[in-house]
Amino acid sequence: MPQNEYIEAHIKKHGRRLDHDERKRKREAREGHRISKDAQNLTGFRAKMFAKKRYAEKVAMKKKIREHEQSKVNGTPKEHNPEDGDALPTYLLDRQQPNSAKALSSSIKQKRLEKADKFSVPLPKVRGISEEEMFKVLKSGKRRNKSWKRMITKHTFVGEGFTRRPVKLERIIRPSALRQKKANVTHPELGVTVHLPILGVKKNPQSPMYTQLGVLTRGTIIEVNVSELGLVTAGGKVVWGKYAQITNEPDRDGCVNAVLLV
Amino acid sequence: MATLLPPPSKKQKRLAQEPKDLDLIPEDLPNVLVRFQASDTGENTGGSVRVPGAATEKQLEMLLNQLQETNDDPTPYTFSVIKGEGDEQTLIDITDNIWASILKPGHKSTEDQLTIVYTPRAVFKVKNITRSTAAIPGHGSTILTTQFAPHTSSRMVSGSGDFTARIWDCDTQTPMHTLKGHSNWVLCVAWSPDGKMIATGSMDNTICIWDAVKGTQIGKPLKGHTKWITGMSWEPLHKVKEGHVPRLASSSKDGTVRIWDIGAGTYLRTMAGHRSAVTCVKWGGIGFLYSASHDKTVKVWDPESGRLQHNLTAHGHWVNHIALSTDYALRTGGFDHDTTRKDFKASDTELRTKALEKFNKLANTSGRISERMVTASDDFTMFLWEPEKSTKPLCRMTGHQKAVNHVTFSPDGRYLASASFDNSIKLWDGRDGKFVTTFRGHVASVYQCAWSSDCRLMVSCSKDTTLKVWDVRTKKLLSDLPGHADEVFAVDWSVDGNKVASGGKDKMIRLWSH
């Protein structure tokens, strides 16, 4: 047994031999000859195994060819195949189904059935952000000698109806240019991305204070409004809030990208 | 800080100032002259009677029972008043008392003689279903259709995507028989009105007939259709000739309707007139066979000769479903809520005469046997027809905002409910097609609905995984039944009203009870 991936390591280090591609091509070109030779000469168990494998390959090939031929002949969509997909009642058979919400809801249920780890998130670890990086010190006072005011340098989510406090009392400023209301949320199983409104910041891994301030950094768990996806709970109610984790650094990209936690 | 409400606008102030109508009955209300008329036979009961103008429904009921000398065993009735003459005749329901329903809105004055049409209500009462008594696994794939037996609520059959149909014992909530024989999804099931046979139609283009008691296959699969079966309907029991087994009509995606002889295992007639897939077939009780199709037409056939009688064209898109006002009588044959007891025994002849009696009673409107039909379509509308009388529709029912998938008449033919993909169910008057109300509550497409046999309740199943029970009288949601883990495709209410069965994408049969 190889103890390490030393072959890959060697290839990485020294490259392949110069005639590697040509040798490969030649070997592939002679593949038919080798199979023919094996088919004629192998005996015993090895012959059995060889025949079995070859038979399976031929069946697969024939199936594929037939499929191609049929698709060329009628050009219609595939017949309802009993083996794959879910059965449909007669009244839904000939209808185009907008499938997304359905796939979403059933995949979520599937997940629940599998009892996947509830607390695992796509980004378990993030880089720590120091207070110096997060806050910029603002000078205030007539002589500009007071420095108790801070301004957040990261993007933030500020809830609707927020009013700034009087200047005298406002210790931490969340710049309005860095405020975000919507996030590009990706559904991991479907691979679709939707622009959804943010409902709140649930957890910033850096510190609970940042959670309170609504700071959006990589790894932050946010709640998004998924009502337009049309998900339904087991009780038949429309789901509208769901959690998502931010996957990018919003202050570098100027937008919030997140992945839905399902 | 608490939010302050804005001060009322001028309009609001003005409205608040205006005198309000009180539902008080004026004290000087004179007596009115009324005459009772039976809704089925059209005959008058008693002569003209003077009643107080404020007489309530209950009082009228007592009076009528007295006139008919059924005081010791009173029958509940609903009342409506005839307005207009001849063709413009309409019925106005008395919901509370005569004053509030008739006199105050100005339909009639106290000077007129009122002709009150009475319809007996079901004497038994189905209890509201509130809980799931069982979730029975067993099917290996999506459940596509369910139906209760016509003669008992302890048997139910379901068809599934795992190529089998199953007969369930609903008393013990266990499977009884697995009907294996198809090589593709079982799309539709139909229990014969004599309760002895079950027909299953499949995606593999065949129909199988099964013995409902033993669970064994009768004869060979019926082959003939070239595409899958979309619907089936048994011959009404009162039309079956003495000593014969009922015949079966089937519709298929291939655009034909076939009539099968079960004994011989062959088809007797092929009705090929539709230019596209046939979606639904119904065998009516007055000697017509109705079929709806994707080619926008509804065709009326004579099942004996296989000849086309009428071609009803009014829809602008696919026709999805047909319901008949007599569906309940046709489905249950000679049985009713009372004969669903275990010890009930009746010969074929008895059942047949009883079925005819029941059909005549249900189809009898103002002294004439008639069958109304309603068709639901992808053009968001429904049409009400009376094919025997005219090829023109009686009424066009508009209001849905998406395709209408399913329509059902209430067992007494008084109301009809339509389930649509626009998340709502609408209730219409089954006699003239007038809009009654909308049931909102589902958050996704409603697939099917089923009536309780006393016509007071209705259950609907939806894509949003729930069943909902609606009260027809108060026009409100009565109970919300979550439980399924995925879309619910099929629902049915048993004939005696004790159980509801549903099945769907989560592969579970669920039984519901009060």
UniProtKB/TrEMBL annotation, chain B:
GO BP field: ribosomal large subunit assembly
Subcellular location: Nucleus, Nucleolus
Domain NLE: 32-81
Stored SUPFAM superfamilies: WD40 repeat-like
Renumbered ranges of WD repeats: 136-178, 179-220, 222-270, 271-311, 397-438, 439-480, 481-514
Annotated GO CC locations: nucleolus
PANTHER family per UniProt: NOTCHLESS PROTEIN HOMOLOG 1 (PTHR19848:SF0), WD40 REPEAT PROTEIN (PTHR19848)
Record key words, sorted: Nucleus, Repeat, WD repeat
Organism: Yarrowia lipolytica (strain CLIB 122 / E 150) (Yeast)
Membership in a protein family: Belongs to the NLE1/RSA4 family.
Keyword Translocase assigned: no
UniProt keyword Ribosomal protein, yes or no: no
InterPro entries attached to this UniProt entry: NLE, WD40/YVTN_repeat-like_dom_sf, WD40_G-protein_beta-like, WD40_PAC1, WD40_repeat_CS, WD40_repeat_dom_sf, WD40_rpt
Pfam families linked: NLE, WD40
Protein name per UniProt: Ribosome assembly protein 4
Stretch list, region Disordered: 1-21
Listed PROSITE patterns: WD_REPEATS_1 (PS00678), WD_REPEATS_2 (PS50082), WD_REPEATS_REGION (PS50294)
Species classification: Eukaryota, Fungi, Dikarya, Ascomycota, Saccharomycotina
